[in-house]
Design goal:
InterPro entries: DUF859. It holds the Pfam family DUF859. There is one protein chain. The protein is built from 3 helices and 46 strands. It is mainly beta. It folds into 6 domains: 118 residues, Immunoglobulin-like (Sandwich); 93 residues, Immunoglobulin-like; 97 residues, Sandwich (Immunoglobulin-like), CATH 2.60.40; 96 residues, Immunoglobulin-like (Sandwich); 73 residues, no CATH class; 91 residues, Immunoglobulin-like. The strands form 13 sheets. It has a 5-stranded mixed sheet with strand order 10-16-15-12-13, with no helix packed on it. A 5-stranded mixed sheet has the order 18-24-23-20-21, with no helix packed on it. Strands 40, 41, 42, 44 and 45 form a 5-stranded antiparallel sheet that branches. A hairpin with a 2-residue loop joins strand 25 and strand 26. The chain is elongated. The termini are far apart.
């Protein structure tokens, strides 16, 4: 126990004292428990008392222990306790501790004060741990290779528990419980991938105890060789069963083949293959598995596909494979029709080529005829061809009305594509025609326009002079292109003011369609047609959507100086399909098809089109 004496007024006849006694110490907490007593003790046979509470304080290590008020009373040879109790103080990390003390009390004779320093007994501290890593002959290890075994030694672990772990920049793992000696092996299954593509890296081992003590050691782990993956075998396959059924598997075919490949590859030193790539004609596709869907091929000849694999360490290997490609051209058809009285004769030209294949992909040609404007098509001719190009004369039969116009449809269909051409056959060219059934006469045309009987119909302008009608002139309807009145025109004996009528009505006599001129005039030609484009495959992508190869649609005859061209879809087997025109000329137009739903083949796609140009 330590007793400290302060200063007190001489007239108080008392000592101002503080007893400090260490009653316990904790190694685990590094603390001491202290009992204290602050008191006045009689000096020189004096005595004193105060019934008034006086301020009393005790501060240890800058910590307020007491801050109160108290009375006191001491007799001759006795003492009076001002305050007492216990408190805990924490030692320094090395177990030592000294701290300042300040105390004071007010008395009826003045203030007593005390200042001192107390030094506590040192608490024994545990020794710090240390770590070393050695090999089988106890030499210190600074470098190790994958597959090596080492021993991790840790000192001063008595009374401690904890664990040992390893750590790199991106990975960490458990070694074992805290022990004085632990064996550890750098297994390839664990450490082959921790440094990525680097050939070496740092591994830090750390021993951690439950009292917060740690010890660590870092070594360099080396991977002497990062072996690249190997591609041992590649098989390129035809994915379109129809192509295989028609042509076999010796060749691929432009725009209709669906190319896929199987790649057999191996990675080393516990790495794995993460990506498979194939590049054909500058376009690269990839897969996470060994099967790659490459898609269609657009160029014929000997084509090279470059395959590449990438392993988990970003190491690569490549492999080249050639495939043989033949050009496939979808069927096209052209048709011209002549009239001979009530008969129709057609000249049909069909082109249908697959390079080197003349008889495996038969093309069916069908010629249908209907009366305009609303008749139904009936088949007049059908044949199969298996040669590259043929022109055939086809007799479409007889019984066609001379005063009616007809539409001839030629359809060429092979086992992959279909093409349709339409030709309009006008009425027979005539000078004067008489229809005895309706008692009608036509000049330059057949009398078929007006409703009713007893009519005169004229194609072209009528110039008349000195025409008089003594009877009433009646007509249910009139179709007059041009009327030239030299002097005056009267109706019910009243002069008709042509100028006033012209100013009052500016309604054009003909319908407008993207132009101020009527459709199909003497100087313009309007062509309407349909085309069967399916099946359509999708080889490219843009903005996450799939698009097809370029598809060509040929006009049945040339349309010069095209001023209007439009197309719409009239039939499809899918949704989310959008065909759009990319270019055109006088013989036809080119288009692509955008698929915003998926990249599967569209089995059926039909369009109609309207082109307007000059005769």
């Amino acid at each position: 126990m330590a007793t400290y004496t302060g200063t007190a007024p001489s007239s108080l006849y008392a000592y101002f004292k503080l007893d400090m006694n260490v009653i316990s110490q904790s190694e685990a907490d590094n603390t001491s428990r202290i009992r204290y007593r602050l008191y006045l003790e009689s000096r020189g046979g004096g005595s004193g008392y105060s019934q008034t509470k006086r301020a009393t304080s005790l501060i240890c290590n800058n910590q307020t222990i007491e801050n109160t008020t108290t009375t006191y009373s001491f007799d001759k040879g006795g003492s009076s306790t001002l305050c007492s109790g216990t408190f805990t103080i924490t030692h320094n990390s090395d177990g030592t501790m000294s701290f300042p003390i300040q105390a004071s009390v007010g008395t009826h004779r003045g203030t007593c004060s005390l200042s001192a320093t107390m030094t506590l007994p040192t608490i024994a501290r545990a020794k710090p741990m240390s770590m070393s890593i050695v090999d089988s002959v106890a030499d210190t290890v600074y470098y190790a290779n994958i597959g090596d075994s080492v021993t991790i030694n840790v000192t001063n672990i008595s009374g401690r528990s904890g664990n040992i772990r390893w750590e790199t920049d991106n990975y960490s793992g458990y070694v074992g419980s805290l022990a004085s000696s632990t064996h550890f092996t750098f297994s390839s299954s664990t450490f082959s991938d921790v440094f990525g593509s680097e050939s070496s890296g740092y591994v830090t081992f750390t021993a951690s105890a439950d009292d917060g003590t740690t010890a660590s050691r870092t070594i360099t782990l080396r991977i002497f060789e990062i072996k690249k993956p190997n591609i041992s075998y590649v098989s390129v396959r035809e994915g379109n069963s129809q192509v295989k059924s028609v042509f076999g598997s010796d060749y691929f075919y432009t725009n209709i083949s669906d190319v896929s490949a199987y790649v057999s590859a191996e990675a080393y030193n516990s790495a794995s293959i993460e990506k498979y790539l194939a590049t054909l004609d500058g376009y690269t596709t990839y897969s996470d598995s060994s099967t790659i869907n490459i898609g269609s091929v657009t160029k014929s000849g000997e084509r090279n596909i470059t395959f590449e694999v990438v392993d988990s360490r970003n190491q690569r290997a490549s492999y080249g494979k050639n495939i043989r490609v033949k050009e496939y051209n979808p069927p096209t058809a052209e048709c011209s029709v002549t009239r001979q009285g009530e008969g129709l004769n057609a000249s049909v030209k069909v082109q249908h080529t697959v390079s080197g294949s003349t008889d495996k992909n038969t093309c069916n040609v069908t010629v249908d005829v209907r009366e305009l404007p609303s008749g139904s098509f009936s088949t007049k001719y059908s044949a199969n061809i298996n040669i590259a190009s043929t022109t055939q004369s086809v007799n479409l039969g007889s019984g066609y009305k001379e005063f009616a116009s007809y539409e001839v449809r030629v359809t060429a269909t092979d086992k992959f594509r279909s093409y349709t051409a339409l030709v309009t056959v006008p009425t027979q060219a005539v000078g004067i025609s008489i229809n005895p059934k309706s008692n009608c006469v036509g000049i330059g045309k057949f009398p078929d326009k007006l409703v009713g009987n007893d009519n005169l119909e004229v194609k072209g302008d009528i110039f008349a002079k000195n025409i008089e009608a003594n009877l009433t002139l009646k007509a249910w309807d009139a179709d007059i292109d041009y009327l030239n009145v030299k002097e005056e025109l009267k109706i019910d004996d009243k002069k008709l003011d042509i100028d006033a009528i012209d100013k009052a009505s500016k309604v054009k006599p003909f319908a407008e369609y993207n132009s101020t001129s009527r459709l199909d005039t003497d100087s313009t030609r309007d062509l309407f047609g349909t085309a069967d484009l399916g099946p359509v495959s999708y080889s490219g992508s843009i903005g996450g959507f799939a698009y097809s190869d370029v598809i060509r649609v040929n006009f049945p005859y040339y349309v010069n100086s095209i001023s209007y061209l439009n197309m719409c879809m009239v039939g499809t087997s899918d949704t989310g399909i959008f065909p759009f025109i990319i270019s055109y000329d006088s013989s036809g137009f080119r288009l692509r098809v955008l698929n915003i739903v998926n990249s599967n083949t569209t089995n059926r796609l039909q369009i109609s089109y309207h082109a307007r140009g000059e005769n």
